[in-house]
Structure formats: structure tokens, C-alpha cells
Amino acid sequence: MKSSSHTEVNAFDRPIIVLASPRSGSTLFYETLGKAKDLWTVGGESHAIIEEIPEFSTIYNGSISNELTENDGTTRAIEVLRERFQQQLRDSNNQAYDEQQLKPIRFLEKTPKNSLRIRFLNKVFPDAIFVHLIRDPKDNISSIIEGWRSGHFITYPHLPGFNNQWSYLLPPKWEALKGKPVEEIATFQWQTANQAIINDLKHIPENRQYTINYQDFLDNTGAVISKLCHFIGIEFDPELQQYCNKPLPYSQYTLTKPKADKWQKNKALLAPHMPQLTPLINQLNANLTNFSDYQVDNII
Asked: Which of 56, 241, 243, 280 is deepest in the core (most CB within 10 A)?
């Protein structure tokens, strides 16, 4: 293990942490923003980086949930976590971080489980900027359903009561979902992730949080990314501009070709669960108002 002095010298400067529920479009968003020459990533999601440290391991801690708070982690465990992130840093050209580079770097992180870890990550990176990506619930929950059906995103195969099928993040109170249909589980995952983000961002200064509507990002990619770059304090460089001006590629986790109203195939399954989301949707739209003309809804 490298000494913690490397982490102190090569400090992370205002990391950008994307917060989103599973299947929210966060991979495409992350892959796009990650083209910025000023940003460094670990090349993907950080499940293993975080959860292979016993103190932060969902399985080691008895599969309670993916939630971590400011009460989790000794000083040494947090140093190890920062070191693990640093060891895997890559720039936009996939070049490894040079530990002799004696200047702070701008780190971009995205893992949907982090929606349940905001207070913890604020402890690990006290100057982090949190970017909340919101996808319309009909599209998002329908996509979670399809992900469960595909069997490609199983995260906790030995979770009691789920027959080797549990997919995506593990929210608190997951035990109550035993025997429930997949649409109810998917709705609970979307709701829990976004409600946790809303609740915990209330304790983050406004100059360290930003909200984006996924549809706005798709429709106005260059404008959305340009505004975000200005907010987080990096250049909207020519290569990133050129990338944003072209049709975006499919993300690495795309299941089927995107199309408008794809959620309609699950309309009958979604309908009974949409009314309960109204209070949360109102909160999401209140936050979006400051950043976008786009809103989300639960109208089937």
C-alpha cells in the first residue's frame, strides 16, 4: 500500500460526484463529461474500490444496505479509500496518473450506490461538488425493470429471498421487498435513491451542488455541459465541445436502442405506483427550476 503522504501531496481538488438512481442515464452523462481534458476518472464505477474495504463493504457488514454516513470509516480507512481512488486515476486519454505530478487534480466519480452515501462522501471529500442527474420516473423505473429482467446487473446474488436475482443498489429496508413484484422493487429503488439525494443535499452548500435533467442533457448536450463546466470550474475545451456536437454514442450499459416512450411497454405495471411519487417529484422539480426549463412527471 502506498503511503498516505502521496494522497496528501497529490490532493483531490473539488471532486465532482454524479448522483443518480440506477438506469438514469448516468453512464452516458459520465462518459460524456469525462471527455473533458481537465478531469480524471477511475474509468468506470467504483463498486470494488469502495466495497473491498471491509469497513465499507455491504456484504462484510451483513448486507444491511449500501448506505454509508459520516459515522462510517476510521481516519485510516478513509485514507486507504482515497489512495485506492488515486491509484486508478485515468485522464481523458486513458493515461494513468503520474504520482510525481505535484498538483491537485479534478476527479469525476459516478456510482449509483453513492446516492446513499452523500454524507459519507462529503466526509471523504469535504470540498466535493455533487451533481444530481434526474431522469423522468416513467423512463427510469421502466429501465430498472428491464435491467432486472435481463439478469445482467445482479449485485448481491446471495441476498436471502431473491433467488439470485437482486440487481442494482441495495436500499435500507430491502427486506420488506421479499416476494414483491419487480415493478414494486424498481419503484422503491428509484424513490429511495432520489429521496436520499434530496434529503442529504439539503446539508450541502448551494455552491457545491448542481441539478440536471437527463432529457435536457440529451436534447441540449453542448449547452448543458458548457454550463456545468463553468459551474465546476473547468474548461469546456474544444475536444469536449466537438464531442458534444456529435450524436452521442450508446453507453456501455445500454440494453436496447433508446426511443421515445419506451416505458409504454411497462405502462400497466407502472401505473399503480406513480401516484405515491408525487411529493418526491415536486421536490425534484423545485430543484430543477434553478437549472433547467425541463421538468419530470408521473402522468401515465
From this structure: 56
- How many CB atoms sit inside 10 A of residue 149's CB? 13
Q: What is the DSSP letter of 189?
A: H
Tell me the backbone φ, ψ of residue 133, rounded to 5 degrees.
Answer: -100, 125
Q: What is the mean pLDDT of each run of 10 residues along the chain (300 residues)?
A: 43 95 97 97 96 93 93 95 94 84 87 98 98 97 97 95 96 97 98 98 97 97 98 98 92 72 94 96 96 90
Is 67 inside a domain boundary?
no
236-256 pLDDT, tens per residue?
A: 999 999 999 999 987 767 767
pLDDT digits (tens, 9 = 90+) for 200-215: 999 999 999 999 999 9
The residues, any chain, with a CB within 8 Å of residue 67's CB and separated by 6 or more, are 116, 117, 171, 172, 196
> Look-up: residue for cell 475545451?
237
Q: State the Cα angle at 298 between 295 and 300, rounded to 5°.
A: 125
- C-alpha triplet 193, 198, 200: angle, nearest 5°: 95
Residue pair 297/275 in contact (Cβ under 8 Å)? The answer is no
The answer to whether the pTM exceeds 0.90 is yes
141 is a domain residue: yes
Helices (H), the chain: 4-9, 26-33, 47-51, 75-87, 118-124, 137-150, 182-201, 214-219, 221-232, 238-244, 267-270, 278-288
The domain in which residue 166 lies consists of 14-38+112-288
> Count of domains in the chain?
1
How far apart CA 222 and CA 160 sit, in angstroms, is: 45
